[in-house]
Batch of 2 targets.
Target 1
Amino acid sequence: MNLKSIILAAGKGTRMKSKLPKVLHKVCGTEMVNHVINIAMKAGCTENVVILGHEAQMVKDNLKNNVKTAIQEKQLGTGHAVMMAKDHIKEDDKIVVLCGDTPLIKESTLQRLFDYHKENKCVATVLTTKVDNPTGYGRLIRDDNEDVLKIVEQKDATEEEAKVNEINSGIYCFNGKELKMSLSKISNNNNQGEYYLTDVIEILKNEGFKVGAYEGSTIEELMGVNSRVDLQRAENILKNRINQYHMENGVTIIDSNNTYIECDVKIGMDTIIYPGTIINGNTTIGEDCTIGANCRIENSSINNNVKIQSSTIIDSTVGNNTTVGPYAYLRPKSNIGENVKIGDFVEVKNSTIGDNSKASHLAYIGDASVGKNVNIGCGVVFVNYDGKNKFKSIVEDNAFIGSNCNLVAPVTVKEKGYVATGSTITDDVPGGSLSIARAKQVNKEGWVDKKGIFKK
């Protein structure tokens, strides 16, 4: 079975009250339309066609996974949208039609829909569910034998049809040949003046083809995101799914309601996540880590047995058995080795720090290469910027940088070089040497009295 998806993403989404197209609003860090594409691919779709309309180029620029696109210049209904993809529909294809604003549909639900479609030899299958209050949804109308007759939109439903509580999800599976045939026969003779994809079901039924309805989803999965309120609801639902997945795979999350983990994050077993933590992007966290309260980790790789307290880590790598924080900031391109200590109020940027080194507190390490077993004292500043250009500092293995020192780049502290407290280093420090770069202390006795500073 050559399975393809057609994803409807042409609408403006006026209720979002946003300059951004509706389908580009993010849920747990990923655009809604990309959620749908990802789910379709996981469910087995080998080709995905996204129907674009409002702000087509902006949406296209944000699509991932090499999808194909088609343009719906005027939004004349769901049937019209699928017509725009007719060149991508082959007679022997199986086509699943999805909505770009339903990011909560599950891969497993789509796979069961495909299985039902195949096993029951249908040419079209509608995904449905039953709800207590079907207001606003299209109704699935069955005959006395429970076979599908048609789908009726809310505004076109009779009083009796409106009482039906089995609703249309807007998700369908079609055989390509019959879909193309029926699309050529739909009309816009309805209250909205639109071409409904739902009319395809009645057309196929009247042509004598087998049409099925698979009641196999939850209303939560089918929730369309049409407003900021819907967006927040979807965020909470998906956040809880993600957190549950990690907990089921051996991660301890102390307070799931206050822990925010995006879809692509990977976390090893026996890691503990404390409340207020935000982990996003393509982040990987190893086993036996402790991620303390109020941490933010983005697009970073955290190895095993790392302890992070109340710190921010962006686009960086942290090696095994390292501690970070509290209140540390690892800016992009920080590569921290194993058994390293990055202490409180230490900022690292575009730097490599070797194994067993430590910067325990109040330091700035920017554009630097720091070797192994290096001590960086309190108040050390790697002075990397002259107002126009950035320069690099090198501190080799087993060096010692005393407290309150400035390393004015470009400068190198050779292996086992020592820098005395309070020094400003502008020249290279030879290996095994002590460098002292500070003015000689001068005490002027009686100076305060001579100045009369404390006279009344």
Target 2
Amino acid sequence: MSERLLGRLRGRPARIVLLAVLLCLPPFYLDAFWLRIGLFSMAAAIGAVGLSLLSGTAGQLSLGHAFFLAIGAYGYSCLASDPGPGLPPVLAACCAVLLAGAAGGLFSPVAGRVKGMYLGIATLALVFLGHHVLLTWDSVTGGFNGRSVPPLTLGGFTFAASDPELVVLGVPFGAEERLWYLGLALFAFTWFTAGGLLRGRPGRALAALRDSETAAAVMGVDVARHRSAAFVVSSMYAGLAGVLLALAFRRVVPDYFSLALSIDYLAMIVIGGLGSVAGATAGAVFVTALPLLMTRYADQLPLVTAPGSAEGSVGPTEAARYLYGAAIVLVLLYAPDGLHGLARRARVRLGRHRPPSADRKPAASASATSAASSSSSSSSSSPSQPAAAAARSKEHTP
């Protein structure tokens, strides 16, 4: 048992290193379209992990995730712009994330005292309020047309296409190639911090709070404080996702941060599996990549027309929403734990049908040897028992 445990511990870092190497290869082999899908999926995964902590682990319904994404995106764009504070881009990104957390902290008293559908309606007001502010505050947000996003610069390296052109192993690195590795770093940071949070005492407290508030309070969990903290952490993850989205889009507009975006994030965590980091990632990739792929291959898909076609036809975006709406219904009916639960059950079934490993063979042979020795001993003792009985009968015969 100890050898197998050590083998698993040695194998997990190897799998992580192999996965990291594989994720570093796409910029050398894929074109800009697939890299943009990956960037949008990584940004969506960061935001979905934050919402999964709030709704899946803490059991708090939120429809205002798009509001905190907008704070992160517009916060970075305003703070890093020259007609403005003109902060260094890295500092502007950190301040934008903190600004989103501060907005979540201002709303946290409501989140600490309201739950369920009532909290969902309260957060819904944030989306409409934020959208109105983005449209009317022209001097800061740029109004309906939005505003451009300054590129991120780190140590003299710019995450955008710039002169002189960067060439790595014969591959020209433009904005998508450079932002790919930034997105990987931010996603890895999100994955490990959220996983550590779920495995630690805060995660156990939030899970107890989700299952039963009364039982959690009896165990010493401060219900209002943990609810508020979950809302702040979720808002900061959303702000980080907004910063990465702004860098990927290169321009932010108010219409993107609407109620539909909040619904998309709820679909991500439901399809992927509530309370799971891996499930939120899988759901984010599915919901984000599906409309982009359907837009590219619209002329090859039945019942789907290219964008800008005649009225009454189904566009790729609408068709994608229909598909993942149907996916939500199927998940709720047949797999309430989402894609993550399906993958876990598949691993269990594969483990059951796996042939016996090499480390089990010596044990089996040892048990067979012991069984053979016991059977031989019993067979050798069986003739002596009737002989002893016959001798005793002769002694008692007159």
